[in-house]
Amino acid sequence: MLGNEAFARGAYEAGVKVVSSYPGTPSTEVTENAAKYDEIHVEWAPNEKVGVEVAIGASLGGVRSLSCMKHVGLNVAADPFFTAAYTGVTGGAVILVADDNGCHSSQNEQDSRYYGRSAGVPVLEPSNSQECKDYIKLAYDISEKYDTIVLLRSNTRISHSRGIVEIGERVEKERIPYVKNIQKYVAMPAMARKLHIAQEKRMAQIQQDSSDMAINRIEMGDTSVGIITSGICYQYVKEALPDVSILKMGMINPLPKAMIEEFAAKVDKLYVIEEGDPFFEEQIRAMGIKLAGGKDMFTIQGEYNANMIRKAFGRPVPQIEEIEDAPGRPPLLCAGCPHRGLFHVLSKLKKTVIGDIGCYTLASLPPTSAMDSCLCMGASITMAHGFEKAVGNSKDVVAVLGDSTFFHSGITGLVNMNYNGAKGTVIILDNRITGMTGHQDNPSTGRNAKGQEAPAIDIAELCRAIGVKNIVEIDPFKVKDLEEIIKTETAREELSVIITKRPCALIVKQPDTPYEVTDKCKNCKMCMKIGCPAIEERDGRPYVVPESCVGCGLCAEVCPFDAFDIAAGKGAK
């Protein structure tokens, strides 16, 4: 199983009844796989805060619940997360967060272990797919035993690696009857102060018990070297240094202090190997335990590997044959991507484009180079508003964001613009799906997480309800019309919204009608400026690769000489 599949299987076997998440790589497949089980109510929430609140509500109602997200999603969910750490649970509640060391699909390398320590909740971290399944089941037992939410931490390698998993049967958990208890569940100041004391007591108890937990274990080998590690780094250490002594921690907050002290006394030199920040190292040094090495031997940035560890300990490093002249493969918008037409126009008009998180972030790269900033989910609208207020001009700046991002955290920004007298232009890229994370549905698609029909929110009507008067919907491949619309709307002295509507090229069947360059071509290279991966230069002239072309026709739209036509024998234009 993929690690994420194993997490979902573990939740199923643990008797989980409710899962509410927002898709975010590398966590997405947990929720997608959970949706395959009829016994579990699974939903895509508009954002991570909503997902955690739904899960906490289900726990209050007496059932086991789960909410999954990537590391930056935990920032969005931090408000309910921190207070739920005070109130505790009725039914077991687990928050699964997947970090992204190396920024494979994220804007930072945030270390979520600090959230567990700061909020005061236990954190578990598996090291393979079997442990993914086992640890999530254990997390529910810990949650209910100690009356606490549990943070289950994964990362890209754990979530997206495969391993053999021994599966079991689902164990149905009887719903725990709800009993009104405002002292526990109403986190107003008088209660919260008492809840904080209770939280500190239970964390002290968990730390005392953690040294006897089976998921924390000592593996004695050569006593001249002892290594404290966890998660994927445990696998790297076992591969690189199979003979050393290891303390593998499955519970990484609170740390098993007594076990660490016991292990330290058994080895000559003690090291800590952990990706990310010196989370273990700083705490272990604070215990008064001497370390021979930690981050001084490695790095805070990126991912580790077995060869890095071998090199740090002076072990032979296998020679890897370098591949010479490997072709570059820069990230590109797909052939037929509906966003390409918009960014071609924005680039041509030389607008300042405040961007957002999604496939369209790739428009910041050549050849369009049509995006100026990207901060976090939903920030396009609010940053564009701030930019307008700073420069005193709304005519040259636009905000762009996708449909799913708009529902995630863009709506409140649009409310803010309207309320505070903005004159800017917001462009919502409605491609009918949550594209970047693998085509999950959202509140505008008309389907839910299980693929069933669901009410579809009309984005234009929602914008009108917010108070926006000027709203235009347009197919972004009608580039001439789109250009005029952008000119008109950005020139207004009022807030306006443009909604570009065209489905993602990967969710609709594309016509088997590739284009070709005809003898009308004047070699102006205008078609090269749209950055389509199906158009390349051969012998100094544009050429359409028929195997890559999906027949979207954008090249024909932008060509000033009508030099593109349906390839011969492939149907009528």
What does this structure look like?
This protein has 573 residues and is an alpha/beta fold. The chain has 20 helices and 20 strands. The chain has helices at residues 3-13, 28-34, 48-60, 71-76, 78-87, 113-119, 129-146, 156-160, 182-185, 189-210, 231-240, 257-266, 279-286, 306-312, 339-349, 379-391, 403-419, 459-466, 479-491, 554-558; strands spanning 18-21, 41-44, 65-70, 93-99, 123-124, 150-155, 217-219, 222-230, 244-249, 251-253, 269-272, 352-354, 397-402, 425-430, 470-474, 496-501, 515-517, 535-538, 541-544, 564-566. Helix 1 packs across helix 2 (28-34), helix 11 packs across helix 14 and helix 15 crosses helix 19 (479-491). The mean pLDDT is 95.
Please give the number of β-strands.
20
Arithmetic mean pLDDT: 95
What composes the largest sheet? Answer: 7 strands, mixed
Q: What's the helix count? A: 20
Which residues form runs of ≥5 with pLDDT under 50? none
Query: Between the first and last Cα atoms, what is the distance in angstroms?
Result: 47 Å
